[in-house]
Write a structure and sequence with these properties.
The protein is mostly beta strands. The chain has one helix and nine strands. The protein is about 10% helix and about 55% strand. The strands form two sheets. Strands 2-1-7-8-9-6-3 form a seven-stranded antiparallel beta sheet. A two-stranded antiparallel ribbon has the order 4-5.
């Protein structure tokens, strides 16, 4: 998996990852005589992808945190069916493990918003 040009070492494959797939977007509005249903079909843009890790090094966390803090659109190579997406990181956090070296972050979570799929 590659996030914003940072290749995650194999031991940092996320424990959990939301499946990147289009979801239906609908709205229901009550009217005087009944109801109006608006259906925009299946849309991939705006899909939230949640990634979680049990732990990662502070160095890797800080590298990914720099992407999060910059707030730019980045490329996410999901390694799921060869799909690549433009995304923004909207949430990134974890807990510092207090040991003598403070080397690890625990319970790391990242949320990506898919902007579009990269077409090659």
């Amino acid at each position: 998996m590659i996030i914003g040009g940072i290749t995650l070492p194999e031991q940092y494959t996320p424990l959990d990852c939301t499946k990147p797939r289009a979801t239906r977007t609908t709205a229901v509005v009550s009217t005087y005589g009944g109801v109006a249903v608006f259906d925009w079909g299946s849309i991939l843009a705006g899909k939230e992808i949640k990634l979680t890790w049990k732990s990662m090094t502070v160095a890797l966390f800080e590298t990914l945190d720099a992407l999060y803090q910059a707030g730019n659109a980045i490329v996410w190579d999901s390694s799921i069916g060869g799909r690549v997406y433009h995304v923004k990181i909207t949430v990134f956090d974890g807990s510092l493990l207090f040991d003598k070296n403070n080397e690890y972050m625990l319970n790391v979570a990242m949320t990506l918003i898919i902007l579009d799929e990269v077409v090659t």
